[in-house]
Write a structure and sequence with these properties.
Elements lengths: L1 E7 L5 H13 L3 E7 L6 E2 L5 E7 L8 H8 L13 H7 L1 E2 L5 E9 L8 H11 L3 E2 L4 E5 L10 H20 L8
Parallel strand pairs: 1-2, 1-4, 3-5, 4-6, 6-7, 6-8
C-alpha cells in the first residue's frame, strides 16, 4: 500500500476539514498521515509516495506572519496554524526521493474573479524544488474569510482524494515484463 503525507495550514478549521476529506478519499488506496504544518517534517523520506500540501489563500497567495496575525484578530479562539505557515515550511522542505509525487490544494473565497491562489503558489514552489506533480492544484470554496466551506466541497475533496489514490496507483504500478 502506498504512503501519503498530507500537510496543511489552517486558520479556522476549513483547510483541516478538507485535508481530512482528502485523506478519507485516499484511504481506499493508501495509508494517509495528516499533519498540521507546525508539526510537519521538513525532510520527506523515501517512504512517502505522495505529498499533498494545503493552505488557505491569504492576500492573493500563501499566508505571511502578518496575515496570520490578522486572522487571529478576527476570532476569540486560537487559530490552528498561528506561527509557521506553508510558505516558511516550503522554504525549508527537502524531498529525498525523486519518485515522490506532489500536489496542492487551497481554500478560496467563493466570489468570482478573486485573484491569487495558495495552491498555485505551492505548486510553483514544489516545481522549483524539482518535484513531480501528481495532479494540477485545486481550490475548494469557502463562504467568506472565516468559512464555512461551501456546501458540497467536503464531498468534492473526498472525490479528489479518491482520484488522487487511483492516479497514484496508476503512476507507481510496476510495468508488466515483456514477453519478447
Amino acid at each position: 500500500m502506498k504512503n501519503v503525507l498530507i500537510v496543511y495550514e489552517s486558520m479556522f478549521g476549513d483547510t483541516r476539514e478538507v485535508s481530512e476529506a482528502i485523506a478519507d478519499g485516499l484511504a481506499r488506496s493508501a495509508r494517509c498521515t495528516i499533519v498540521e504544518v507546525g508539526d510537519a517534517p521538513t525532510v520527506i523520506g523515501h517512504d512517502v509516495d505522495l505529498l499533498v500540501i494545503g493552505a488557505p489563500t491569504h492576500a492573493f497567495g500563501l499566508s505571511t506572519p502578518e496575515t496570520r496575525r490578522e486572522a487571529q484578530g478576527k476570532t476569540a479562539t486560537p487559530v490552528i496554524s498561528p506561527e509557521l505557515g506553508v510558505r516558511e515550511w516550503l522554504a525549508a522542505l527537502v524531498v529525498l526521493s525523486p519518485r515522490t509525487k506532489t500536489t496542492a490544494f487551497d481554500n478560496h473565497v467563493k466570489q468570482r474573479w478573486v485573484p491569487g491562489s495558495a495552491a498555485h503558489k505551492i505548486a510553483h514552489a514544489l516545481a522549483r524544488k524539482g518535484s513531480s506533480p501528481a495532479r494540477e492544484p485545486v481550490s475548494f470554496r469557502v463562504e467568506g474569510q472565516m468559512g464555512p466551506l461551501v456546501e458540497g466541497e467536503v464531498e468534492r475533496a473526498r472525490e479528489w482524494g479518491e482520484a488522487l489514490g487511483h492516479r497514484l496507483i496508476e503512476v507507481t504500478a510496476p510495468s508488466a515484463p515483456s514477453t519478447g
